[in-house]
């Protein structure tokens, strides 16, 4: 007699016979570390996706710290952040990643360094987990207002990009913000409303921009301890106003300028009238993007030499005098730019010398204390 086979048993057998789906773990795009440092930092190189489907199938290695470089990802989208299994520190550098949309509840630190980033978006969801955000060395010109949702930030570094306008009010929800670095951009205006308070901000860098003034400074940062203001186009009347406030609030001003084309007020160059900035200055900054002062100086000298050669060739070919006059004018302009870069370089060298002297004095003092302790122990 043939027994009756229960229906649940037949269903179980049928499920076992179903082949795995194409999206099973065997078909996932598992990215491996190119090398791993002793501190378990995972380096990933040469990542590129052929399609969006490949991105959705990506699995990053389960490393606490990932450094991705020499890669090409047109848009680092939220699903790629979701694929970071257990990663707390992520660094993207030396790659081509022109767009990024941040959304992650796992990351504590995100660094985006020289990735050709132009478009940045932040998911409009309150994020209390990200502690450090560094975006530097990119052609980024705009910060999205949704950056205000990153309420857990204690360090925000937006240096050496191409920002032109920043609203400081966007950072007010970041109650624990200690460091704000806006240096090395093209900022002409910082919007500050009268009631703004960055209550815990201690370090504020705005050097190497095109600012004329910062309203309500330093009132909007009651805990401010250190600032960098050099290499801007400060109005002399603004410098005179804030100098006493800086002194009264015992704020340390790092860096000083000594070779000023117009006026020097307490170590800061200041200018009367309109901002002395031209498109030619901007062109120089764009060409020297990412270079140090020596690199800028070298490029300017090379351009001067090329103009001289062109002028000599013009004379030899007996071209009209108008062309010679144009080249002469360009040459004089470049010579003026060369002098400005030389002054900037001198200021930088002097600042470094002061830093070295201070560190040497501190080291000597520490060595003396150690000797005293050894003598007492002996």
Question: How would the blueprint of this fold be written?
Answer:
Elements: H1 7-17, E1 29-30, E2 35-36, E3 41-45, H2 52-56, E4 58-59, E5 65-69, E6 75-76, H3 78-82, E7 89-93, E8 99-102, E9 109-113, E10 119-122, E11 132-136, E12 155-157, E13 165-167, E14 179-181, E15 189-191, E16 203-205, E17 226-228, E18 234-235, H4 236-248, E19 252-253, E20 263-265, E21 268-271, H5 279-287, H6 293-317, H7 321-377
Parallel strand pairs: 1-4, 3-5, 5-7, 6-8, 7-9, 8-10, 9-11, 11-12, 12-14, 13-15, 14-16, 16-17, 17-19, 18-21
Antiparallel strand pairs: 2-3, 20-21
Organism: Anopheles quadriannulatus
Keywords: Coiled coil, Leucine-rich repeat, Repeat, Signal
InterPro entries: Dev_Immune_Receptor, Leu-rich_rpt, Leu-rich_rpt_typical-subtyp, LRR_dom_sf
Structure description:
- Keywords: Coiled coil, Leucine-rich repeat, Repeat, Signal.
- The protein has helices at residues 7-17, 52-56, 78-82, 236-248, 279-287, 293-317, 321-377, and strands spanning 29-30, 35-36, 41-45, 58-59, 65-69, 75-76, 89-93, 99-102, 109-113, 119-122, 132-136, 155-157, 165-167, 179-181, 189-191, 203-205, 226-228, 234-235, 252-253, 263-265, 268-271.
- An eleven-stranded mixed β-sheet has the order 2-3-5-7-9-11-12-14-16-17-19, with no helix packed on it. A three-stranded parallel β-sheet has the order 6-8-10. A three-stranded mixed β-sheet has the order 18-21-20, covered by helices on one side.
- The protein starts with 6 loop residues before the first helix and ends with a helix.
- α6 (293-317) packs antiparallel against α7.
- Among the domains are: 35-253, Ribonuclease Inhibitor (Leucine-rich repeat, LRR (right-handed beta-alpha superhelix), Alpha-Beta Horseshoe), CATH 3.80.10; 335-363.
- It is built from seven helices and 21 strands.
- 23% of the residues are buried.
- It is of the alpha/beta class and 378 residues long.
- The protein is 33% helix and 19% strand.
- The radius of gyration is 28 Å and the shape is globular.
- A hairpin with a 2-residue loop joins β20 (263-265) and β21.
